[in-house]
Write a structure and sequence with these properties.
- The chain has one domain.
- The chain has eight helices and six strands.
- It is globular and about 60 Å long.
Length: 199
């Protein structure tokens, strides 16, 4: 893949995707009070963002894909996974400058492969920590996009290359993404707040 200034130039030359969609997010109910926050992606490494880069929001094109993406750490091929309770909810996204890595021409411009986008990013991160010459290409793309003020990246899912996810850089978005929590979750949050107020 291209790097440094060549990568930034290739991204700037790409045709950006205008987006107005309803995407989906899945959040662990352990974080009920702050369910729609994206602060967790700032604190931790993720497929497309390193820790400390952005309060990035990860969403998928459908509820089932969002659930698979959000719970992949619990998957185990040798036993049924014990997955904590999660909330699935829609997120309304509007943006004008999204880099579309599902587009083959854009991938050619960046000289990035599907394997680099959908492969085992945790293994790539481990290899990078052992030797910085090992690249994490998804992180390089997002760092370049973030620095250029681009609002997000659409990328193919690791589970199904014909479907896609988005990583959205909240700091760069002109119109913030709007989450719509289910009524049962909103009621639970209100009950929790009242319980705290009475302590």
């Amino acid at each position: 893949m291209k790097s440094g200034d060549a990568l930034r130039a290739a991204i700037e030359a790409a045709s950006f995707l205008p987006v107005s969609v309803i995407a989906y997010r899945v959040s662990n109910l352990t974080y009920l009070e702050t369910l729609t926050s994206s602060a967790g992606s700032f604190r931790a490494d993720n497929r497309f963002t390193r820790a400390g880069l952005s309060n990035a929001l990860y969403v998928a094109d459908a509820p089932d894909l969002a659930l698979r993406e959000a719970t992949q750490a619990y998957q185990d091929e040798f036993r049924a996974p014990e997955i904590p309770a999660h909330a699935v909810y829609p997120v309304h996204v509007r943006a004008t400058r999204v880099l579309d890595l599902t587009d083959i021409e854009t991938r050619v411009q960046l000289d990035v492969s599907m394997m680099a986008l959908t492969g085992d990013w945790r293994a790539a991160l481990k290899m990078h920590r052992e030797d910085a010459r090992n690249r994490i290409e998804t992180h390089e793309i997002s760092e370049a996009c973030f620095s250029l003020g681009i609002e997000g990246v659409r990328y193919p899912s690791a589970f199904d290359g014909f479907r896609h996810n988005y990583v959205l850089f909240g700091e760069n978005m002109v119109i913030g993404a709007k989450s719509k929590l289910p009524d049962v979750v909103l009621r639970a949050q209100a009950l929790l707040r009242r319980e705290k107020d009475t302590r």
